[in-house]
Structures are given as structure tokens and as C-alpha cells.
């Protein structure tokens, strides 16, 4: 379980392996904020290898999205499985984020 | 035949994943639909434990959280009790309302209520009981709620 950061052109892609939960949310937040402070503005978080996100994980994504927007950037989400999409729909966070079916789709026009 | 599980956890967030995995394995005999068991129960139990440790026990490492699970053929009942002073579940705002949508917290109780068939709190608010049944009810959302 962990996070990998990869630069693809001017887009920073963060891969979430396993789960994004109360026990590791701060690690993700720190990684993304480090990139934001170093000047990155375009972010995609890839959930293709993520099994579960809890409410704390959702909260961290909301927080990061706000901070990135405040710096003139954008955060998009990609490749959520059916259960994770359900979480975003139930909480109406699907109205707050651009959610793409794949990382490649998320990067289009970013 | 019913199976009863009782777990006592230290107030350590790292324990949640192991405890939920343990309960999920023991619930495999229940007739609940696969995704309802794997997804709804996991979300409900994880959020209940997280709330108990973060808010109920206020991150106090000296406190503990107790889980009691009764696994029947058609129903799972999970009771999570913390050692805090409790709270008023009706005082938690709807996180999907426009005023609260961009808040970074407050979605745990909402998810429990959406994904479980019943959610009950004791009078003092330091114990929550979650019920999940195989007979319709909360399939992926829309559980019946009886808070506080």
C-alpha cells in the first residue's frame, strides 16, 4: 500500500495502491502538496489499483482539490472501480470532481 | 445458527483494516449478496470504527473500542462502542448539501446511513449499531435510518 508519483509532460500523476483511508491519507496529502509547492499545477490521481476509499480519504481529496484550485491548477480523478464511483455518487462528490474512465482520458485537455 | 464475535481494539487507526478484514472473513457464511457484504459492510464498519477512534475516544491511545458482531444466515448486526462521552448524531449536517459539499469531514455517518439497512445510536451516543440484511433494503444505497 502506497503512492507513486510520475510526471507525464506537465501533468503529475499519482497512483494510489491499495486503499486511501484514515491511516494513510496524510501521506498522500503531503506528497501532492510537495509537488504543488514545487510548481506543479496539473494533477491526475489514478485509482486503477485502489480497492477502497473511506470518508477520510474522500475528505483529503476535497482538501487537495481546493488547494490546487487556489493555486490556479486542477485535480482530476481516473479509473475508479464501481464501488468507488458509488461512494462519489452517494456523497455527490462526483459533482465536484472531473472523474475520467482512464488516466489517458483524464489528461485530455488538462 | 448465529455466530457472535467480540473484538477489543486499542485506539489505533492502523488496527481498523485488520479488524474489518477479520470480521469480513467471519461473515462469509451469511447469505448477503456479494457486493452488499463486501462493500456496504466494509464501509459501514470502517466508518464506525474510524468515528469511534477519532471522535468518540478523541484519539486517546489509552482508550479502547469494542466491536460485537452477530452473524446470522440473513442478517449481520455490528455494534461499535467507544469510551468517549458520546455525541448527538442528529447534529451532524448533511454533507451533500451545497454548504457542506466542500467540507473535508462529516461523511462517515452519512455513508453508514446510506449503506446499512439500519443505524441506531444509544442514548449517550457512544455506541452505534449497524444492521445489514439479505432481504432487499440497502442494496447499494438508501438504507432505513433510526438515528439517536
Report low-confidence residues of chain A grouped into runs of 5 or more: none
CATH class of chain B: Alpha Beta
Secondary structural class of chain B: alpha+beta
The strand line-up of the biggest sheet of chain B is 1-2-3-5-4
CATH architecture of chain B: 2-Layer Sandwich
The CATH topology of chain B turns out to be Heat Shock Protein 90
How far from one another are the termini of chain A?
A: 27 Å
Q: If you consult CATH, what is the topology of chain A? A: Transcription Regulator spoIIAA
Number of folding domains of chain A?
1
**Low confidence ranges of chain B:** 140-148
CATH homologous superfamily of chain A - what is it?
STAS domain
- Main sheet makeup of chain B: 5 strands, antiparallel
Integer count of domains of chain B? 1
Helix content of chain A: 25-40%
* CATH level 1 class label of chain A: Alpha Beta
Q: Rounded to an integer, what's the Rg of chain A over CA atoms?
A: 12 Å
Helix count of chain B equals 3
Could you tell me the strand content of chain A as a percent range? 25-35%
Number of E-state strands of chain A: 6
In sequence order, what are the helices and strands of chain A, one letter per element?
EEHEEHEHEH
Structure explained in plain terms:
Chain A has a single domain (2-107), classed as Transcription Regulator spoIIAA, CATH 3.30.750.24. Chain A has helices at 25-37, 55-70, 82-90, 103-107; strands at 2-8, 11-20, 42-46, 50-53, 74-78, 98-100. In chain A, α1 packs parallel to α2. With 110 residues, chain A is α/β, with parallel strands linked by helices. Chain A contains four helices and six strands; from the N terminus they run ββαββαβαβα. Chain B has 148 residues and is an alpha+beta fold. Chain B has a single domain (3-133), classed as Heat Shock Protein 90 (2-Layer Sandwich). Chain B is 29% helix and 23% strand. Chain B is built from three helices and five strands. Chain B has helices at residues 15-26, 34-56, 108-115; strands at residues 3-10, 64-71, 75-81, 118-121, 127-133. A five-stranded antiparallel β-sheet of chain B has the order 1-2-3-5-4, with helices on one face. The N and C termini of chain B lie far apart (30 Å). The chains are: A alpha/beta (110), B alpha+beta (148). At the A-B interface, α2 and α3 of A face α2 and α3 of B.
